[in-house]
Amino acid sequence: MPKRDAQRCLDDEADPSSAASGRRAVVRLYRRVALRHVDAYQIHFVTYLEWADEGYAALLRQLGTSFADMESNDLLTPAVNVSCDYMSPARLDDDLVVTSQVLGVGRTSFKVVHVVTRGEHVLARVVVTHVALDITSERPIRVPPWIAEQVDAAAHCVPAP
Known about the structure:
The chain has helices spanning about 45-60, 65-70, 145-150; strands at about 5-10, 25-30, 75, 80-85, 95-105, 110-120, 120-130, 135. It is an alpha+beta fold.
């Protein structure tokens, strides 16, 4: 298990300057299923949504920004829709990887996919739709270019469902 909490997967290289050069940013969060994550049978469904939220924050950091930076620039990106496909259960003490990247971009909204895997086995796929909002007017605005550029890059880092 890598010691880093998040690692970068950018096209065919791991150069930290890649996100700034237009390559697709992808983050991988390494998680172990703890007792607080499970109910009597398997991992609690809310845990996948919490990990998706952590993945989104890590993805923003890989892109060189944060929630605080966006807020100081009058930008919010609230989630307006979430879907989760559960393919296989995770169990107590499983070592999992949550891989997050921008999936698609519209004029004022974008989707981020978070794929939870154990080894090569896909356990869940969470897709979150975010809308870009101006803080002052609370109205939708065009998705910032630094997010839109992410869908133009190669997409081989996130496992298919």
